[in-house]
Specification:
Blueprint (H helix, E strand, L loop, with lengths): L19 E3 L9 H4 L5 E5 L7 H12 L2 E8 L5 E9 L2 H10 L1 E6 L2 E9 L22
Antiparallel strand pairs: 1-3, 2-4, 2-6, 3-4, 5-6
């Protein structure tokens, strides 16, 4: 019978401090809300639910170069939604990430293919110059 079925519940801890990473030596370290309006920011999607901002910063720094800031997007309960933003310290690192477009990553027996797109947020796209593109540009 349905009522006699055992259901398993998985509890995944999430610390609020895992949501943000800011490079301590960055000039923008004191201004986290300002950081993601910069041109060197990418949108990342399809993130594993257990990846935290600091880990993502180290992965992207190793792959593409200087990472200044990472934010993992959260829902109304402050639990990760699987998307985020990474801000690079220079245009070259930013372009390398955009050119890659995807990155496959394995974390604790789970393999994920992370999507990487330019982050727009109400400004014109630095690659195609289209105005009012929501979150990221699909033309690059």
């Amino acid at each position: 019978m349905y009522k006699n079925k055992k259901k398993f519940l998985q509890i995944v801890p999430w610390l609020l401090s895992d949501t943000y990473y800011h490079k301590p030596s960055s000039i923008l370290y004191s201004y986290p809300k300002y950081i993601h309006s910069q041109k060197n920011t990418v949108f990342v999607g399809a993130l594993h639910g257990r990846i935290h901002a600091k880990a993502l910063a180290y992965i992207f720094a190793d792959l593409f170069g200087d990472v200044v800031s990472v934010t993992i997007d959260t829902d109304e309960h402050e639990y990760p939604t699987g998307t985020g933003r990474v801000t690079f310290g220079n245009q070259n690192s930013f372009r390398n990430a955009i050119i890659a477009n995807f990155h496959s990553n394995s974390i604790e027996k789970v393999s994920k293919r992370i999507q990487i797109e330019p982050y727009i947020d109400g400004q014109s796209c630095c690659s195609c110059s289209e105005e009012n593109v929501p979150n990221f540009c699909k033309r690059t």
